[in-house]
Amino acid sequence: CVTITSSTKCLKEVKMDNLVASAINTGSCTLTLYKECRKGTTDTLGPGQARIYGPAAKASWSAVKFTPPKKAPLDFGYWVSHSDDDEPPPGAHFLKNDLSHIPLKNNNAYGIVLPDTTIAEKKVIYHDKLADVVVMRKVWFHDSENHVIKLAADTDYCIAMSGTNNAKDQDLHLKKCKKGKTDQWTYDESTQQIKLKANTKRCMTKASKGNKKVKVQLKACSKSGSTTDQWGIKKPTSHAKKQMTDAGKIPWKWDNNYCMAAKAEPKSKDINIVFKKYAGNNKDKWHYNTKHYTINNNKYPSIVMRVSGDIKSGTPIKTAAKKYDSKDQWVFDATNFLIKLKSNTKWCMTKAKQGTTEGVNVVLGECGKGSTKEKWGIEEIFTMKSASITDIKIMNPTHDAWKMKFGSSTFEPIRIKYKLGSDVHYLYYIFAAPSGTTKAKCKKSVTCGHMEKWFYINGAKSDNTQGKNGKAIGVAKREWIHFPLKVSFTKSKKGKYTIRLDCNKCST
Predict the structure, then answer these.
(1) Which of 50, 188, 266, 431 has the most crowded CB, counting CB atoms within 10 A?
(2) CA dihedral over 413, 414, 415, 420, signed as positive or negative
């Protein structure tokens, strides 16, 4: 057996007749094959590609080196769907949530693709059926900082205008990223149009109403979006069953003993929805109307949860008679444990204050900014039975690791590798407050707390490089779980911690 690592080492007395190499979904990897540990031959593999290097008579390599790509941002916002239809190469580790498509809003089975697997300048961008093309032709990363849409298989390439005059209709091409007037884009959430940043009257548009292999062009935007220039999820999916119990409780993700409920008997309008301990009475029990997207009370089904005023941060959620309009329709985002306003999924239901004080109002807040305040759903249970706990670290440079920044605060959490069957999670536990604050203050802060509870990083559950680049991880990316691995620690007078995990089968 030969273990291939990221370092280049001579493999003495080893002959690899057929070297099988595969790149999965982290962007294009550079593979270097060495003979006599001197001069190397390089090849580039894109996501989803697998290759066999041979024939055997010529395949006596002395060393192999994989050079992974720089990770690109994965978050396009709600206009990108995550694939469920791709199959990995044989033997490949596969993370479906890392694969991002840009689907046509009118028919999510179709989206933006390359015509073939060759990555080169001036490749025409097409609209085609997503399931019919390989991964590297349909996976994109959105570099929100630079406003460019990169090809995942090679993030040096972006979607760009074919010409320079943005007032003219023209094909869109794959080009080397310039981060300028010809390849920067913005997304209009209200119309679901992808607009040229330099001229927002021009949009990414299908060249015709057909579906199969239709060019994507720069054209004048339709007034409020049409079947040819709207991109994104057709309608946000709602998995209310993952966020509501069969009895009708909408539990707080951090602690399922708490829920959102009416402050008084919900038989009339204008009663505040508040945060409280679950009692199982009429105030606490609701159901989701999947046809009309409303959250109705079980006892009084004509009463729904509704935004009581302007669509802005802090507006209270109250009971109201159902209207099926922009203020009383909601979608459940079970991936991120959010309850979003259907008419504008930028806004979510959130507690007005951090902590466990009962009676706090549930209000409208900007999604992704509220950390534990905005998380609603049935608590995820991680069991110790049959699981392995390895790779235990304190995230500190003295432990061959790095400090991690969540929001504006820097921590040194415990990190473990949790493996149950083929499922792998890296779990974290913050036991100490960051420098310059106290544990009590941290727990009261959305951007700092909570502490002393296990969590994983949403969208990167099995990535052991999170935080290594020093960039801040969004506080809402922390997904708190129920995990029975107890942590105890003591602090010496000199400020040093002694930490113990209550685990007989854990290993480093």
Answers:
(1) 266
(2) negative
